[in-house]
Amino acid sequence: MSGSALHTRACELFGVRYPIVQTGMGWVADSRLTAATSEAGGLGILAAATLTLDELEREVAAIKERTAQPFGVNLRADQGDVDARVALLIREGVCVASFAQAPGQKVVARLKEAGVLTMPTIGARRHAEKVSAWGVDAVIAQGHEGGGHTGPVPTSLLLPDVCDAVSIPVLGAGGFSSGRGLVAALAYGASGIAMGTRFLLTRESPVPDAIKQRYLATPLTGTLVTTAIDGYPQRVIRTPRIDALERGGPLGKLWRAVMNALRFRGLTGESMGSLMREGLAMKRSSKLTWSQVAMAANAPMMTRATMVEGREDVGILPTGQVAGVIEELPTVAEVIESVMAEARQTLERLGGAP
After folding, report:
1. Which tens digit of pLDDT belongs to each residue from 84-132?
2. How far is CA 231 from CA 41, 46, 113, 249, 289, in A?
3. Domain 9-206+326-349's class?
4. How far apart are CA 90 and CA 113, in angstroms?
5. How far is CA 140 from CA 26, 162, 184, 323, 345, in A?
6. Phi, psi of 329 (to 5 degrees)
7. Nearest in space to 152 (alpha carbons), one of 163, 140, 165, 143
């Protein structure tokens, strides 16, 4: 299959069979889901931003027990112990370090020197150009259709723009769940696709069954992008909780944010000093107010309420619009097999050679 249109630069770069990446969704992409994706031929990515350093070490070990295939770990470059996390990835021979935000030149250089690939997620051409100049190995370009924090440009416009701007492999994200989508991404110039919601809605996903059913019941028009959670645009399923947040006043939002920041500190084991340093770095890099910095803890804690505790009444449901076309809960292997089979059929229909 080395000469196939479906064996892309991303396959070669990551050492995987298929050009499919499972994104590092907080509280969702655990060792089981990550290992299942890699074992099935894609690239699984462990969500580490919500883990303590000890938990991260245990989850990496658990993945290695389940599969010998390459996998990645998603990091937050602004965490106080990021150097220790980077050292762990290097020591354990992790294939890819992914980042939801720009990782910084020093982090990229250290990982690159150790042979760990870096792959940030970006939402604009200029961001892709910036991190490419730093030496990252690939980028995920997520369009407006994507779940969680997302940008204003639709995938159909962002993806070809980014592919034209950089020479490194680009993975398309936002709106993908099928083989037809994979072929479309390749036509735009991408080297594959990255999917979050599609992998969240699998049997291996740790999300409570009742929450999965809530996702399956969501129509294409059932999501919205809101800044009421943490000050950043974030796509979620519209619920009474979201409507209440949209109507809430600034003092209530700030109080909830401070409480969630303290809860997040307790769960991740970060010191108050570390939390304050991260907040200061975030304030400087993003030009946020202190109230917006405090609000930044809302997203992970309100996501945890649903994804771990099953509490839709107090939590949020981050999702891509693609939830509106997903109707079943297959295994991870079935998802990947289905995507690849449909991609081959699509290329045959178009007269290509899969």
Report:
1. 999 999 999 999 999 988 898 999 999 999 999 999 999 999 999 999 9
2. 37, 25, 36, 13, 10
3. alpha beta
4. 10
5. 17, 10, 15, 20, 25
6. -120, 80
7. 143
Closest to 21 (Cα-Cα) out of 197, 195, 199, 205? 195
> pLDDT tens digits, residue range 135-146?
999 999 999 999
Per-domain boundaries in the chain = 9-206+326-349, 219-318
**Contact in structure between 220 and 324 (CB atoms under 8 Å):** yes
Torsion angle, alpha carbons of 169, 175, 180, 183, to 10: -10
Question: pTM score, two decimals?
Answer: 0.89
Q: Which two tokens stand for residue 238?
A: 């519209």
Q: How much is the pLDDT for 277?
A: 52
Residues 6 or more apart in contact with residue 125 via CB below 8 angstroms:
158, 161, 162, 165
Tell me how far apart the alpha carbons of residues 42 and 15 are, in angstroms, rounded to a whole number.
9
Rg of the chain, C-alpha, whole Å: 19
CA distance 4 to 308: 40
Give the contacts of 249 (CB within 8 A, at least 6 positions apart).
Answer: none
